[in-house]
Amino acid sequence: MSDILTTAYSAALDAMARTGPRSLHPLAAMLGDDSLANGAALLSHLRGAGPEDALRQQFAHVLAGWDRVDTDAGWAAGTSRNTAERREAAIAALTLDTDTEQLFADRFPYAAASGSIVISADDWEQWRTPQRRHDRDFYWAHYSKLLRDKGWDPDAVADLDDATEEVVQRLSDPTRIKAYQSKGLVVGYVQSGKTANFTGVIAKAIDAGYRLVIVLTGTTNMLRAQTQRRLDMELLGRENLELEISAHDTKAHDYQDDPDWDADRFIRHGGRPSDAGYPDIRRLSTHAWDFKRLRQGFSALEYHRREPARRLFEPVNLFTTDARLVVAKKNSRILEDLVADLGRISDRLGEVPVLIVDDESDQASVNTTSPKKWQADSKKRTAINDLIGKLLKMMPRAQYVGYTATPYANVFIDPGDSEDIFPRDFLVALDRPSGYMGAEDFHDFDIDVPVEKRSYSESQERRHVRLLSDEPEDAELRTALDMYVLTGAVKLHRERLGHATSKTYRHHTMLVHEAMGRDTHREAATTINSMWNSGDYRGPSGLARLRRLYETDVLPVSQATAADLPTPPNFDDLRPDIGAAVSRISPPDRDAGPVIVVNSDPDLDRQQESLDFDRRSVWRILVGGNSLARGFTVEGLTVTYYRRSTAQVDTLMQMGRWFGFRPKYRDLVRLYTTEDLHSMFAAACKDEEYLRTQLRLYSRSVGGAPQITPRQVPPLIAQHRPDLRPSARNKMWNARLVERSSPGEPMEPVAFPYPAGTSGARQTLHNNRAWLPAIAAAEEIVKFKTVRVSRVNGLSATQESGTTYSARIAAVEHARFLSILSELKWSGVDTFQPELAWLRSLSADQLNRWIVLFPFQSSAGDDQEILGHGPFSIFQRAWTASKGSLRVASESRHRNAANRIAGLPTPVADPTADRLHQPGTGAVIVYPSVEKKSELDEYPYPDDRITLAFHLVTPLSTMPLSGRLIKWQTRDNSNPTAVVVNVT
């Protein structure tokens, strides 16, 4: 009965995938037998089915698809995609009984909308109709099924379907008569699954008719090989790869010794695709070999035409010819060979729909030559940028899609350079995937309690971050090494108790990243190997050391954050697993150590061959620099010892190899780094999230037209630390933002003059005198409710703390307050200027006064007069290492009152704040701050050493009437969207 039921309902769902939902049980009965007609059998089956049940998974996938599809079909009853009403319409069309409807609601919850953000040019053509998608979805259907079979949540697969569709529909129609090149950029998070996205895009593109796919990977052989294998395994599949295997030499192929090939884990298509009327995919590169000049010459790039007199891109020819795939690293010699081979058939390339996927597109691809070297009529280009330009020029039907987690260099490209790779047509920012550990998982942005007093359950930093001293100390590296042993032992313990499989913990790695130089890597490897050999991990001193670390760090963190996974409360119960972990980490060769050095040194190639995560289990300590800093996935990474600094956000974020997915060992992840580096990552994370917030805000259309196009993205990039640029200077182009509105949003500039030294002290005193009208008026003292911000289920939550704080307050007219802000000096020339321009433009109906708050500290002792007024509390605030800005100004416990004064809803009511609210009222919290109280030998603190940092919030009445939140300076009045672009 179970086989009949599964087959019948599965076939019914397959049939409805094209037609939309219909009466389910009668269709299943027709395809099976009459016993299915009343639905009782399905209800019984689903009640007993686990998450791995194939039919249950298929129901989840199909329902999620109906949630998301754009359709005007009758069953949808006019509902919008991704709404509860859409799900109700789908269930109604299935005509289920009440019990089955309730079970569906419990087992298959409503699929929320995709979080992808899309910034698109306003002239793109929609060609991906539902009919075209369904008619040709061979490779996408098989790829999405593979992901579900691998354990992906059906909603995650549906989200991937949505995100890839946002990209594919903005490519040019491959059957279009007039050639068009679309250029776009997809922005993900570091190590967040961008490869899965572009694999899905390639699958859909080949289904749609693209017949040459060129994937440009990073600059290393390791990354190129990793990408090739991923596409071979999950897209091409066994049947396409077997086309290359000789009947007389079945072992002479890429994967002859690959365990996944032997275990039949490469995707199968149920036969050769061309036998079913779909294109085969032929490789022009292999896992072992990058692209080489084609021995086959013309034949390798010759496309079969069913009707030779018709052009290749016409459907009669396009859908019956094979596709080609090239996976090439960004190396000038490799790309020169590719350009040369394609050039030999340039007269026919004009008919071939081509997709170029540029992984890590901000690396090597961007033109970084100095404008001083450009000729009057042309731009001098870097080698890779020039070769990509040649590819695009010789293939008029080529579409370019860049992928990166750090888009700064890409969006700073001159949009007026038609031969460059600026994403003029679209920018898609992918949503943060479920289960991903990113930069914010290693920082507490809205918690004011000192780190050491935070609980493990609420604090990301306490769980995962261990701060190092400014100068390297052997004891700290030893602790990180011990943590690596212990976390490996806990993994084996969980595996031994059946809470994970051997595949879950197949890899267990530690990363040591201190500098770029090869000599530094060799020295680090020698030091770590020596530490390993003297660690006494099986003896009394080593075990005593491990016991202390386990009981003070590993155990309390895991108990607080991973109660569902076994972590032995008694260290002695872990001892057998410690021995097993040490054995795995120790190499068979006693003369060698557990370290693998990964860099560009050719002498280390043989050693780096052992770093093949596909063919073997890797339990090793990796020491490296740039080769491990971008693109390449370090599988099983659990402990990181990181000391390398940089001055660019994109470089810094790409070095965060500890970001990614950590199934069943998230609690074991540790980052050892310095306080300043941790602060730099916090600023980089804020830059990243700020850009995403701005993109989401401006992606909403106004009056049917987009608020911004990709050309207007550069000014939205923030710089939270003046000493940490978005990208290298030779990649940055600047567009000028004239005015930025922030109704109801906080504004907190931090680039104040550093108050030490003659110039900084003079500017600081000037700023404080500018504040005199507010300081002198702040005579009334009131009490506000203190709130507590913590993390609940991974989300920031504001709660009442049960206490209050006192604050001096002043009411200042808007015009007077503008004069204060206009007088302030900053360490950055453009700091706060677009916001100030907006505040000046507001009418009295929108904003007429400000309530200025000067909070008092909860503990007395640091109160003093400022410029003869007060007293005021003096706060302590840290500065960045370069002294270019404060790290942070405000405290979350005070923001609740400010928000309510401005009329914004908050979770905690505050009668005092509500009394101060009036229409057109803004709020500002001022923090008189010094850097290190213990180092100032004068008290009271001098007025020229006190920085008046502040946090502003405006009422929603300041929303521009047009709905547009930003204004641009244009090149000329005839082109209002052409932003000014100047070379730095």
Automatic annotation (TrEMBL):
Residues 476-721 form the Putative endonuclease Z1 domain. It comes from the Bacteria. It holds the Pfam family Z1. This is Z1 domain-containing protein. It comes from Actinoplanes hulinensis.
